[in-house]
Design brief:
By secondary structure, this protein is of the alpha/beta class. The chain folds into two domains: 2-126 and 254-291, 3-Layer(aba) Sandwich (D-Maltodextrin-Binding Protein, domain 2); 129-251 and 306-337, D-Maltodextrin-Binding Protein, domain 2 (3-Layer(aba) Sandwich), CATH 3.40.190. Helices cover 42% and strands 19% of the residues. It is built from 13 helices and eleven strands. Strands 1, 2, 3, 4, 5, 6, 7, 8, 9, 10 and 11 form an eleven-stranded mixed sheet that branches. The radius of gyration is 22 Å and the shape is globular.
């Protein structure tokens, strides 16, 4: 028995030593991201399985915070890569010369809108997230409020203090909504619409998911939020309708890029190759209905039909070039209802 114990102990020690040696041989790769917290571990496991030389070190926050941090570090970049951040943010970085030019091996196999088609590409699309209205039908019925079919339905007086949406400086979802309204309505009408919406807004929250969570709990009748958060809350039994208004909706693309000056450039390129692969898109599709690879589809129950046809023709370059101007104007008009930051 003692000899068996000694043999088992020796084997365990050998496995532990092997594991420690492998860990010591891996190179930490710092990746800035705005993906949801529950995506971090599955993404890390998939990346490290595909590129075993790498140890993923996440720096995660909301889109606005990561974007501001990255720009503040422009003279001394701290990240090796960006993965799972809004394309409009990446285009701001690209304009300032902060991204490495690289074309992943599988990029040509992705849907056209998810590819940087320039001769010296710097980004690769992953998935799309869409702004929707999470509409609590039970709360609405009690209040005598009809389900909206148009964005302008949200301006009706019965929605007074019953709507929440993400703050566009903090949340990528918030900014995609503001940018979407300005594009689909034109700037003059878009600001006029947001003036009216502001009258019905209870608070601007610092998360792209929180408005839908509040609607799901019955704290609000409507939350303007991420499409997939709405589907998730509905799957958990919340009386939610996931509404895409008839005019269409703003959307954003999550993308990957390599930071110029990365000391781990070769490894970053391997991770970028994984990011454009079908295998990576299968990971993305566990949390997003619209992904870059045309052969990967995992549409969840309750997801709006023909969503891709409802996406506006988003000008990401315009959103990037006008971000500071738009956010300054938005803050001047509507900051009074911003929720306190935690």
């Amino acid at each position: 028995m003692r000899s068996l114990f000694k043999a088992g102990l020796a084997a365990a020690v050998a496995l532990a030593v092997t594991g420690m040696a492998e860990a010591q041989q891996r190179t930490p790769l710092t990746i800035y991201t705005a993906v949801e917290n529950d995506q971090l571990e599955p993404f890390k496991q998939a990346i490290e399985a595909a590129v075993p030389e790498v140890e993923v070190v996440w720096v995660r926050d909301s889109t606005g915070v990561i974007t501001a941090r990255f720009l503040a570090e422009a003279e001394n970049p701290q990240a090796d890569m960006v993965l799972g951040l809004a394309l409009s943010s990446l285009l701001m970085f690209d304009e300032k010369g902060l991204l490495e030019s690289y074309k992943p091996a599988a990029q040509d196999g992705l849907r056209e809108k998810f590819r940087d088609r320039r001769d010296a590409p710097t980004w690769t699309g992953m998935d799309a997230y869409v702004g929707v209205v999470c509409f609590n039908s039970a709360e609405a019925e009690g209040a005598g409020i009809a389900q909206p079919t148009s964005w302008k339905d949200l301006l009706k007086p019965e929605f007074k203090d019953k709507i929440v949406m993400p703050h566009p400086a903090s949340s990528g979802t918030g900014y995609l909504m503001v940018g979407g309204w300005l594009q689909m309505m034109g700037e003059e009408e878009g600001w006029k619409f947001m003036d009216g919406l502001h009258e019905n807004i209870a608070a601007y929250l610092h998360s792209g998911s929180a408005p839908c969570v509040q609607a799901a709990r019955g704290e609000r009748v409507a939350g303007i939020a991420l499409d997939m958060r709405g589907v998730y809350e509905r799957s958990q039994g919340a009386p939610l309708e996931i509404v895409v208004p008839e005019e269409g909706s703003g959307w954003e693309m999550e993308a990957t890029a390599i930071v110029k000056g990365s000391k781990n450039l070769d490894l970053a390129k391997k991770v970028a190759d994984w990011g454009a692969s079908k295998e990576a898109n299968e990971v993305y599709s566990q949390t997003y209905a619209v992904v870059a690879h045309p052969e990967v589809q995992n549409t969840p129950d309750g997801y709006p039909e023909n969503m891709e046809a409802k996406l506006i023709d988003n000008d990401f370059a315009w959103m990037a070039a006008n971000r500071e101007r738009i956010l300054a104007e938005w803050s001047k008009r509507y900051e009074s209802k911003a929720a306190p930051k935690n």
